[in-house]
Amino acid sequence: MAGIDLVKLTKNIVFAILACMAKSTNSLYEAKTQLSALVERAAAGEEIVITKHGKPMAKLVAYRPKKAPKRKPGGWEGKIWMAPDFTEPLPEELWNVLSGGSNESAP
After folding, report:
1. Its pTM surpasses 0.70
2. CATH number of 16-60
């Protein structure tokens, strides 16, 4: 590899990659006729600016879903209260009303 400047070669490769990923400008007419191709390019990481009469109007970029924030357990601690008899059977009268008025006793 005598005679090859690796630093210069690396810089050229980086510049070529950046040029491929650079913003592309398309008129509204071009965007309408080439929408599928533009969407594919945007999905690959290219940023595409759509112009109308030379004025930038919109930007087409890849969709990146937002990540849901991580939940932190214990956020309601001390803010809610549960009766000590929560797991006990309901009184028979209340059970009958809630179960549609039947005369059966609670389970």
Report:
1. no
2. 3.40.1620
